[in-house]
Each structure stands twice: as C-alpha cells, then as structure tokens.
Amino acid sequence: MTKKYGRRGKLALSDVHLSVPAGRVIGLVGPNGAGKSTLLHLACGLTEPTSGSLSVLGSRPAANASHLARVGFVAQNTSVYGAFTVAEHLKFGARMNPGWDPVLAERRIGQVGLSAGQKAGQLSGGQRAQLALTIAAAKRPELLIFDEPAAALDPLARRGFLQNLMEFVLELGAGAVLSSHLLGDVEQVCDYLIVLCDARVQVAGDTRELLAGHARLVAARGEFDQPRAGIDVISVEHSGKHSSAVVRTGAATEALPYRSEPVTLEELVLAYMTRAAAVPAARTEAAAWGATR
C-alpha cells in the first residue's frame, strides 16, 4: 500500500505490507513525518491509498455505516466542539451511533469529574481528551484508534487518560491502536509494536517477542564496522574503546565472543529509527521480521 499527497506526489507511505492481529493493544511509533497519522487516517477511512488496499475488521475502512460504528477514533487534537456542552456531545453521539451505550457514557463522564453543563471549550486539555475518549468508547466499537491523543497533556492527565484507555479496552473487549512518540506510554499499555520510519514499516511484532529477539552486543571499537557473517546489525554506537550494536539474535549471535545484554524498548525503537535515518535506501524489506506474523 502506498499513499502520496499533492500534485508532486509527496510520499507519505511507501509499499507498506502489514498484517496485525485482532484484539491487541498496538503501539505505532516513529518520528514526526514518518506517516503514522496517514496510516491511521487510512485505517479510519478518512483518506484512501494511492495504490494498493487495506482491510480493517475484514472490510474496506468506512465501507458503510455499520463498519463506521465498529471503529472509534480519537484524533491528535482530541477534536470536540467548543460550543457544545458535555451533555450535547453525548446527545450527538447517541444520534450518530445506533449502538450507543448511554449508561457507559454517563458513568464515565461522572468518573472523570465532568459536568453535563460544561462547554467543551472551557475544559482543560485532559478533560477534552477524556470526553473524546468517552464518545469513542460509548459507540462500543471493536477497534479503538488513537492518533497522539495524549501528546499535549501533562504527565498526570496523560496517566489518567492511559488508565481509562486500558479500562475501556478491557470493558469492551476491543483492540486498540495507539500512535505516540512517547515510548513510556507505549511500553505501559501496548503488547504489539510497529515502528514506522521513512514512510515504511521498519519492524513489527509482539513486544515481548521483539525484545527477546534482539540484543545489544558489546565489543572492541570498530568490531561491527564489517559484521561477521550471520549478524544482522540494526545500529551501532561507539564509546571510547568499545562499540555496542543492537542486533537480531539467533544461533549465529549466541556463539560469538561478545558481551550480550538485553535491549530496552527505547533502545530497540531508536535502533530502527537510526538505521532508517542513516540508510533510507535500505528500506528494510517492509518489516520482514514480524510484520506478517
């Protein structure tokens, strides 16, 4: 699947091949301009691919009203109507969604301390995010999609938002996709990871499997400049007399005379981002490791 914008065909996504499991909480990470919002907008049916196709919950995105009701979307600016009160937002949500759950909506509004008469334009950023989340969840969707919903929130508001996000996922039995550049948020709530850089998926898979399938090797400086056969080096850093490399692990690496250490989620993500930035021509086979797992 490829997406281009404008007359000059600015590339937003290039030859993306990706299959993700249902019912998971998926973290979508990457630098600004990587194509994260474009991918989510495609998944919601807000735009269409230039070439190729995609399927969400077994159908073309936004194929009909029934499919729209199965997906809840919270945009980056947690879009709510400033002139509408909280109660008016809930009434509007009920009119637009045949599966609307008024009990869930009212209960959640009360739990986060919102008053029915408050206008959305007078709410704090955290309160607007909670209102948008409640509206998306009260549809009782099968999939919740979040595009950087907590990026502008302070740490306390962000923590509350993420807690409520997970509560909704559990209550609804829904899957979720969370786009974020805050790796701590992703590590806290996501069990599946997609790293998107340079308009392409660099790696994707179960978070635990990805961490178990990579390691940081430490050796003499320059040892990884020409890696030994069988070593798949993702990125290398130098410090004094030593070099450390994030690599994919396997039988070939286990037998090598290097000190091996586990990688953190941040190290893993930064390694793939570094490789994409340094060698964009490599393009990493559309995330061959895990993208179709």
Automatic annotation (TrEMBL):
Keywords: ATP-binding, Nucleotide-binding, Transport. GO terms for molecular function: ATP binding; ATP hydrolysis activity. It holds the Pfam family ABC_tran. Signal peptide: none annotated. The keyword ATP-binding applies. PROSITE patterns: ABC_TRANSPORTER_2 (PS50893). CDD domains: ABC_DR_subfamily_A. PANTHER family: ABC TRANSPORTER ATP-BINDING PROTEIN ALBC-RELATED. This is ABC transporter, ATP-binding protein. It comes from Streptomyces griseoflavus Tu4000.
